[in-house]
Amino acid sequence: MNVPAEIFAILLKGVLEKAAEKGKKLQVGEKWEKIREKFSAVWIADGSTLEQIRKNMKISKEEKSKLGGKIMMVVEAFTQRPVTLWYTENDKSNDKIWCEELAAKLPENGLILVDMGFFSFVWFDLLTEAKKFFLTRFRAGTSYKTKQVLSQGSHYRDEIIIMGNYRSNPCKHPVRLVSVLWGTIWYQYLTNVLSPEQL
Predict the structure, then answer these.
(1) Which molecular function term from Gene Ontology is one that the record holds (predicted)?
(2) Do 148 and 190 reside in the same domain of the chain?
């Protein structure tokens, strides 16, 4: 029996949400407990194109089967327990199509870890105004001005910035840019958690 992918995604989403409601709080390592205590939830969201599964299974392109579509999975960061998922038949869609759903689902004071597919000033402002938090990689080439340097050394820099100073729609709220030198490469991370004591 073949179940259409969209129906399967709806059923799986329902099962995952019921399991999350019934699931008890699992223990996490001591070093992570301090982080978890500071947020109502700590989630990771990531999207995948299901067509890649078809390629990995070496299903012939001549077959008239539909493309797999795209799925967005949200899991608890410390337990990897699924929280929810979304599905679209459009395998070319960008992760940003789920920004509003993700912002609505994340509880107040929750933290979501996402990749750069969610990099959007509008979404960052939406989360900040709802008292919800994000952590993502910083997109190279994004214009910004430093508002305040919180701390710095030879291998790190922690600063509050204002993004989009050359855009007609700048980010309305300040964000925090943390840069870390690992080997010879600087890695940069962006969050709206402005206090180093919180994150």
Answers:
(1) DNA binding
(2) yes
Q: In what order do the strands lie in the sheet with 70-76?
A: 82-88, 70-76, 42-49, 111-113, 133-137, 185-191, 175-182, 156-163, 144-152
Which residue, among 54, 44, 59, 48, has the nearest Cα to 91 in the 3D structure?
Answer: 48
One domain, residues 87 and 46: yes
Cβ atoms 129, 146 nearer than 8 A:
no
How many Cβ atoms from other residues are within 10 Å of residue 162's Cβ? 16
Same domain, yes or no: 98 and 79: yes
In total, the chain counts a number of residues equal to 199
Tens digit of each residue's pLDDT (9 = 90 or more) over 147-183: 999 999 999 999 999 999 887 889 999 999 999 999 9
What pTM did the predictor assign? Answer: 0.83
Tell me if residue 82 falls in helix, strand or coil: strand
Mark whether 131 and 145 lie in a shared domain.
Answer: no
Contacts of 126 (CB under 8 A, 6+ apart): 99, 100, 103
pLDDT tens-digit map of 69-128: 888 999 999 888 899 989 888 878 888 999 999 999 999 999 999 999 999 999 999 999
Neighbours of 93 (CB within 10 A): 15
Measured in whole angstroms, how far is the alpha carbon of residue 191 from the centre of its chain?
11
